[in-house]
Structures are given as structure tokens and as C-alpha cells.
Write a structure and sequence with these properties.
This protein is mainly α. The protein contains 26 helices and no strands.
Length: 524
């Protein structure tokens, strides 16, 4: 075997191992190799299994009890180059190889070759199907009424063949070193796909090597491992501002799953376990937020509750309080006043035990929203004023994950509370302050602030200004993968139905249609 051929075999063997761990069938792995290797089906299936020609030849000869196979390596290489060169394999040999490769014999020849086979050979090839030997092949579900047979949701983070091809091509473009290319593939495959490559760029080579060793269970968890997951977790939070939930959620879930597996199997010092558990709680919270941002409430609640359990196990008041803040926000968005207030009070209690002023500001802000949703104007105003004062004077050592809490963000939440209370003037003022102070990189939050400003202007019967702000929000929302600003924009547009014939509203509808956001009016 040439040096290049051996390199291809080693690389394919490693890819095949990782893809099998992700649940790929042998057929799917061969499909991936078809798009990355210029080879016929017989060679692709051998590479998918990571076997040398000598190994396959030995298996073929062993499978023939009569000893008549007498296969040699050179002959197998010749069969693998057919029909461009070499010799044509017999139907009997294709059936034997199909059993070895746990596939169907029809997958080992091209359609053109199959069409030239005799009727007898075609029957033998069609009848040789050994895909049931592949343990990764999905089995047919048995119809039953037993409670234990309840279906489990599909793992949407699992990469399919086309996603693996994109990942391999992305790695080929950015990395020429073969060894590092293999390492990046292994890490990205576990951590969420091609988008995970953006995360791996922030790691040093030593951190990458150590992380790969821990994920393969060949290295023990150490301080470097904890620091690496902390870096990745913080980067994931900040990446939301850039990528949005659609592309980021699979990466966050990949990190979260990997970390859960490490926590479940590894023995480590209490200090290291607490650090990894903290990262896991944050990733769970972020996963819940991203799912909520896509209006997938069931997935959001599942991840948020998982994060809360981890935070409670950790016993950190800041993490627990923050989880309750996020859960209160989700409940308020869904107009669940009682649940929003319950989480807000819990957040307040835990924030009182935390040294973080920004957490207390957030807790007061969600409490203000919950009171507003319940129609308690005075209680909402008191909590809102407290939140503004705390956000304006953060502590000296605030948690890094609260980097986004600012007076402008609090003003945005205040605008929403004032709209619920039907206080048009103060809501307009809060929305204006929020827009003036928001960091331009927070595109989703700016879209929300513009929609809230427009809703406040509708309350004030300022229709031209409201439509102008909604048009601006539509331009931002259409370029972001978050579903919530679009959802809110359509709901606010429904408030404009009494003015549907107004020229400003008609121009707004044209803008919404241009961005693909026009929908049927929503009853409010």
C-alpha cells in the first residue's frame, strides 16, 4: 500500500469510528466518503470499515469453507477499480462482500454495472441484503399500547451525512496539517458540527489536545479541561449576538451533551466538579433560552429545568437566581402571570444571597414585569426603579455571564411593562432611552425595542411613527434567526387593523411582504 493510500485508510478509519459513535450506518458513512474520496463503491465500503485489503481478503477466504475463493490483495484492488479499469467482480463475490460490509450487494455496484448483469447474477445480487447486521440501522417500531414503549424525541443535534460532508470540507479549507485536520474533525463532530469550528479557534493547541483526550476518555479531567469549557461556554453566550439561535443551538447542545457525559463518568476533585457543573448549568440555561427564542417552549422548559437542577446541586445563589430570572421572562412572554411572579420572587430571594448587583437588577426587572402583567402598577414601578439603580452601579466583580445587563436593557424591559399597564407616555420614553443606549451589536434586542416603541406609539395614536419603527424592526428581524421579534412584530401589526386603510400602514404591509413577514391578522 502506498503512503498516500495508507494515509487515506487511517483518516477514513478515524472518521468511520467517530461517525459510528454518532449513530451512522455503514451506508451513511460510505455516502460521506463518496463526496470526499474519488473511489468506487467497493473501495468506499472497505474504507468506511477502516479495513486494509489484506484484512478483507482474509475474511473472504475464511468465509468460503470449500477453500475455492483464493482471493489475493491484487485481485481485490482490481475489483475495486472496476468498471474504469481492472476486473469485474462476480455476483457471488459481491454477495460475500455485502455480508462482510453489512450492506446490500446492490450498494457495492453502480446502476450502470448492475444493468449489464445477467438475470441470474442480478437475482443473486438483489437477494444479498445484509443491512440487518448493522447495529446502527433503525429497527421497525413494534406497535404496542405498553406505557414503557413511549416514543422518545429525535436527537436534532445528530449530524446527517450532508452535514458531515460540509464539516469535512470546511476543515479542508482552513487546515492543511493532516493531524490537526483529524483532531478538528473529532472535536467538531462531538461539539455540534461545522459551526463548532468557530468555537475551536479560541482554544490553544494544548487545550484542543487535552479536550480531545478527555472526550475520548484517554485523559483525566484537570484544570485545563475546566478552563476550556469555561472559555467555550462564555464564547457561546457572546456568539448568540452574532449567530442567532438556529446555528448556535446545535453547538450549545453538543457542548452540553459532552459535558454531561464527562460529569457522569469521571471522578474528580470537588473543585473541578463544581466548575464543570457551573458550565453545564450555564449551557443548559443558554440552550433553554435559544429554544425559547425559536418559540420551542417544550424544549426550552426541559433545558431550563435541567439547568436549574444543576445550579441547585452546585448551590450557587447567583446561578440559581439567574435561572429563575430567565424562567420568569419566558413565562411573562407567554402571558403566564402567576408563573412569572413565582419565578420572580424566587429570583429575588436567591439574588439577595448573591454578591452580584447585576443579578439583583435583573431580579427586580423581572419582578416589575410580572407585577405589570398582573396589573399591579405601583409594585411594578417600585421594582423598576430599584432595577435601574442597581444596573447603573454594578459591583466590582460581577459574573462574566451578566455582561449584557445594563440600564438600556432594563429600560427595554420597562417599556414592555409600561405597555402592559397601558401607560403610553412613559412607555415611549423608556423605549427611546433603550434605543439610544443599546449596543448596535445587540440586533435582536434592538428589534424588540423598536417593536415596543411602535406599540407604545400605537397606544398614543401616533400611527405614522409606529409604522416607521415597525418597518425598521422588520429589516433587522428578517436578517436574524430569532423567531420572537417576528412573532411580536406580527402581533403589534394586528393592533393596526383599525387603520388598515391608512397609507402609512399600507406601506408597512408592503415592507413586511418584501421581507416575507406579512401574515394574517392575529386576534388580540
Amino acid at each position: 500500500m502506498s503512503g498516500e493510500g495508507y494515509r487515506v485508510l487511517l483518516l477514513s478509519r478515524s472518521w468511520g469510528k467517530r461517525l459510528r459513535e454518532k449513530g451512522f450506518t455503514w451506508d451513511q458513512i460510505a455516502d460521506v466518503l463518496e463526496l470526499t474520496h474519488n473511489a468506487g463503491p467497493l473501495r468506499r465500503y472497505r474504507l468506511a470499515h477502516g479495513r486494509t485489503a489484506a484484512e478483507v481478503v482474509s475474511m473472504v477466504n475464511d468465509a468460503d469453507p470449500a477453500g475455492t475463493a483464493c482471493m489475493r490483495e491484487a485481485r481485490l484492488y482490481s475489483f475495486e477499480t472496476w468498471p474504469e479499469a481492472g476486473r469485474r467482480p462476480s455476483a457471488r463475490l459481491l454477495a460475500m462482500l455485502a455480508k462482510i460490509y453489512q450492506t446490500a450487494a446492490t450498494c457495492l455496484v453502480t446502476d450502470d454495472v448492475l444493468s449489464t448483469c445477467s438475470a441470474v447474477d442480478r437475482d443473486e445480487i438483489d437477494g444479498a441484503d445484509f443491512r440487518d447486521l448493522d447495529v446502527n440501522r433503525p429497527r421497525e417500531a413494534r406497535v404496542t399500547m405498553e406505557p414503557s414503549a413511549a416514543a422518545t424525541p429525535t436527537d436534532t443535534s445528530l449530524l446527517d451525512a450532508s452535514a458531515c460532508v460540509r464539516l469535512l470540507r470546511a476543515i479542508d479549507v482552513e487546515e492543511t496539517d493532516v493531524k490537526r485536520r483529524e483532531l478538528l474533525f473529532q472535536l467538531a463532530l462531538v461539539l455540534g458540527g461545522s459551526k463548532a469550528l468557530d468555537f475551536l479557534r479560541i482554544l490553544t493547541p494544548d487545550e484542543e489536545d487535552r479536550l480531545a483526550g478527555v472526550l475520548r476518555n484517554t485523559c483525566r479531567v484537570d484544570e485545563t479541561t475546566a478552563r476550556t469549557f469555561e472559555k467555550l461556554t462564555m464564547h457561546a453566550r457572546q456568539a448568540d449576538d452574532k449567530f442567532g439561535p438556529v446555528s448556535l443551538l446545535p453547538v450549545v447542545n453538543g457542548h452540553r451533551t459532552a459535558l454531561a457525559q464527562i460529569l457522569a463518568r469521571e471522578s474528580m476533585s470537588p473543585m473541578l466538579r463544581d466548575r464543570l457543573l457551573s458550565s453545564y448549568a450555564q449551557l443548559s440555561q443558554l440552550s433553554g433560552f435559544l429554544a425559547y427564542d425559536l418559540l420551542d417552549y417544550a424544549a426550552a422548559e426541559h433545558a431550563a429545568n435541567d439547568g436549574l437542577r444543576a445550579a441547585l446541586e452546585l448551590g450557587d445563589p447567583t446561578s440559581i437566581g439567574y435561572m429563575h430570572c430567565r424562567m420568569s421572562t419566558m413565562a411573562a412572554y407567554r402571558q403566564q402571570a402567576t408563573a412569572a411572579l413565582d419565578h420572580a420572587f424566587a429570583a429575588r430571594g436567591w439574588a439577595a444571597r448573591s454578591p452580584s448587583k447585576l443579578l439583583r437588577a435583573q431580579a427586580e426587572s423581572v419582578t416589575s414585569q410580572a407585577h405589570a402583567l398582573g396589573g399591579k402598577a405601583l409594585a411594578s414601578a417600585q421594582a423598576r426603579d430599584s432595577a435601574m439603580a442597581l444596573a447603573a452601579a454594578p459591583g466590582d466583580s460581577e459574573p462574566a455571564f451578566l455582561y449584557w445587563v445594563s440600564p438600556s436593557m432594563i429600560e427595554s424591559k420597562a417599556a414592555r411593562s409600561l405597555i402592559w399597564l397601558r401607560q403610553a407616555g412613559p412607555a415611549v420614553t423608556a423605549a427611546q432611552r433603550s434605543l439610544a443606549g443599546l449596543d448596535p451589536s445587540y440586533k435582536r434586542e434592538r428589534a424588540f425595542a423598536l417593536v415596543q416603541y411602535a406599540e407604545a406609539m400605537i397606544l398614543a395614536k401616533e400611527i405614522p411613527e409606529a409604522t416607521s419603527r415597525l418597518a425598521e424592526a422588520a429589516g433587522i428581524a428578517a436578517k436574524h434567526s430569532s423567531a420572537r421579534p417576528i412573532d411580536q412584530l406580527k402581533r403589534v401589526r394586528a393592533h393596526l387593523e383599525p387603520w388598515a386603510g391608512d397609507s402609512h400602514v399600507r406601506r408597512l404591509d408592503e415592507t413586511l411582504r418584501f421581507h416575507g413577514l406579512k401574515a394574517q391578522p392575529i386576534s388580540v
